[in-house]
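Progress narrative, work stream C.
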Amino acid sequence: MLETLSGINDVINSFVWTKMGVWLLIFTGIVMTILTRGFQFTHVGHWWKKTIGSLLHKNVISHTEDRATISQFQALCTALAATVGVGNIAGVSAAIISGGPGAVFWMWFAAILGMMTNYSENILGIYFRRKNHADEWSGGAMYYLEDGLGKYKGMKHVGRILAILFAICAVFASFGIGNMGQVNKIVLNFTSSFDIKPLSSIVLFTSDETDVTLYMLIAGIVIMFLVGTVVIGGLQRIANVAEKIVPVMVLLFVFGSLVIILKNVMMVGPAFACIFKYAFSAPALWGGVTGIGFKTIITQGCKRGVFSNEAGLGSSVMVHSNSNVKEPVKQGLWGIFEVFADTIIVCTMTSLVILTSGVIDLETGAIETTSDALLVADAFNTVFKVDLFDFGRMFVALAILVFAFTTILGWSQYGSKAVEYLAGDKAPIATKIYKIVFVLLIVSGSLMTSSIAWDISDTFNGLMMIPNLIGVLAMSPLVVKITNNYIARRIKGDKSVKPILSYDPKIEEENAKALAEDPNLD
């Protein structure tokens, strides 16, 4: 039965990621870049100033008195909590192992285009958001599919169906990639790097020739307790934790990476040369893998890039929609920065650590290990190993622990919002049940060894992407209209232009009034 299930999933996964999804993702990024006249390039100074350059502004970082919203910085950190995860460590090394160093180039390519996809998602998320039963903002692909695409002539039922499919896939993805998959990586890396013999020697059962120990079970229970105390507290508590952990964890990982890169500074040039050399042609030998084709290099790079920054999945928009902004474009700018920070900065650091440390021979492609997470750990050990103490491996294990932990928190919010949409009037009860199930499944993640569960989760992750990208493309004229409106008012200073802020006339009026009273609000 497992073989049959695996075979069916492989067919769907191949269609979603290789035959359609990746190419639809690239196409959407290109379309949105062209339609916005290369906004991520032509207005780089503006979006940089309005994001990272605005962190000292009170309205950006201050906690809002409205319990139904979170600050712009909290929204960014919560979104980054879900995106800056295992994909930035294991995902990058997996792309290099399976697609060669050229896959890194295509991760960059996907990220540059993904900036405008994420920008568009966030604009639509803010524009089509509405208040829920708890007077909190709710937004996401399900709303701009139903109320945006669904408002086109003859598309009412299509928009509704796509919205439901997106929400269902988001729930399943939150259980898999956003929960059990992350927990599994935490437990395996932590228990191997910080071994406690009295616990790891007690084998509970064996699955797929892998021993599941008491140590793994205890680690899973501890993680379940920690996640539960945060998730049950709702978005405000998740955002508060994220804004404290995310900046610190990113800076520490970047600092550790820079130490290795600077130590091997003479290899930086050859590493970049290797990336660009093999971006358009497959190496003859790379880690013992034969038959790597140009298509594989592109798909591996783009797929891992999406797995890292989630641009195009329509996931992070569900938390961005809770921001206290009035301007849809303002949150769109944070979407651009989110992809930039996740892939252009963090993933580049990881790839350079791998390619400059010597764990891969840039000439022959010989690799010390084919394990994605251990490859990064070995790279850190080239600098941080002291005698018998593998401090490099310990650092990576702790990084995966923190990265994956915050990813679980972010995805719990995504799944909760998807359940809220599907449940309708019964949302209050449904979301509580969802959170309980989500937390309980964490222990299962610590004990599971079958790769089928992760493969199926990866498929649901991709299935989210297709209806979302259809919605973004269908709503592209609206994104352009809102963008041009913002440029005219905010960049060119045309005060005669009225803002476009919401699909709801009442919300539009309230937000326009707030902006008129305080032009610097956004």
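Work stream C, second folded protein:
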Amino acid sequence: MKKRALVSVFNKDGILELASFLDSAGWEILSTGGTSKYLQDNNIPVTDVSSVTGFPECLDGRVKTLHPAIHAGILARRELQSHVDTLRELNLSTIDLVCVNLYPFFEKVQENLTLAETIEFIDIGGPSMLRSAAKNFRDVIVLTSPEDYAEAVNGLKAGNVPLEFKKRMAGKVFDLTSAYDAAIARYLLDDEYPEYLPLSLKKEQSLRYGENGHQSAALYLHTDRVGVLGGMKQLHGKELSYNNIRDLDLAWKAACAFGLPCDNTLPFGEDDVRRLVPDAAGGNKICCVAVKHNTPCGIALGNTLLKAYEKVYACDPVSIFGGILACTTKVDAATAAKLGELFLEIVAAPDFDNDALEILKKKKNLRIVKLAKAPAETHEYTAVDGGLLVQQSDRRLIEKWEVVTKTAPELRDIRDMIFGMRAVTFVKSNAILIVKDEAATGIGGGQVNRIWPTVQSLERSAAAIKAASESGNNPARVLASDAFFPFSDVVEAAAAAGIRAVIQPGGSVNDKLSIEACDKYGITMVFTGIRHFKH
């Protein structure tokens, strides 16, 4: 009996070569619509599906292959005599190869089409044929990707398509259709936490290794939306590693929390600031962030990129070595020259001057990354054994602006307090950040109590605090905390180090102890009413 293949593809890559081989090998090719015309225009004989079903294509192409004559031919088990007899009684023939790829829903869902327009790119017949063929993979070769055509042809030429290959192709079908359906579900659902979590991700690349050399790893990106990494362009350097990508993600989020000039979204918490402390809102300063081991080791604002970078470097000139640097404006030659003075893993920015690129590219392994989008994910996912934890992304900054001490902050203090609270949200809890002139001068976090990171951040800031006090330029220093103080010990340490303003969520049963300590030393303190744990 003559073998039959059903070919219906949106992506025409490689299909002429496959169809030409099948035709030369004596296969009958069934096809539909645009694929049928494309093959015939290239002199490959085709049998229209409607001549097999006895039913015309209808409803603007919505119904073509949804017919028993097609699915019975695919699903019939050749080793079961009852199935063979049924096909003979119904005058139906088997279909032995199905080559189908789907309407481009992944791409179209990102084009801001209307609901009615987007729905028309939901493929029904394609997934149905693929799933039928995949279920019956022992008897039917099923192909979804041009990259697999050659292996199928080689097997057919040899007269033996391995069962393992057929099984793998069937697995690829359900891998594809599950992601396809998940993208559709995500588009149609209006439920923040649905009963089943629809995630649609495609492997972008295998990574050399994971967090450590003995761990394998890969990068997956969403199919239905282009996030920061999906729009990334690497201009120079080695491939990004697992740790690079994690650190880059954090560095970029932290930088964009203070605003990205090429993006229209408000920086993190800006709506809260404008509502509660409008005098401290806004500003067009440039942000620069250095990250090491997934925590910031420097973060600052400046009127120029060079100034912002110099503040970042001054915060921790030891830890920045081998770190990741992200900034919110184009990198110029002057800044690039300074960056070239130390070893960095990555420099990321919206753009780079040609002269800056020429300087940075002298470092062969330095990864130069161009990022143009502000982070926009609404939720965060953390793997736990057996499942995922899902939570909203932290987008609120302050719930209230409550001055709880006798001394009120000055405007310059307020700006540093807002800066500190933004920056501290990217530091591992318990997080303490010391600020002067919209720059971190000491960062402590990731400890199991609050006094240890307080002492660490104050020690790292000691020289800057002393210089500020002696210069009289801006002696006010700010301490920001991601959570409340259960005791007065943080305030006591801050007072001894010359801190003049504190911002923290408040909410401890012992708030009174910290307030009294602040009043004792003439320190101003503000409660924000919202904590920012980062585990």
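The chain has three domains: 4-188, 231-370, 397-527. No further action is required on this item.
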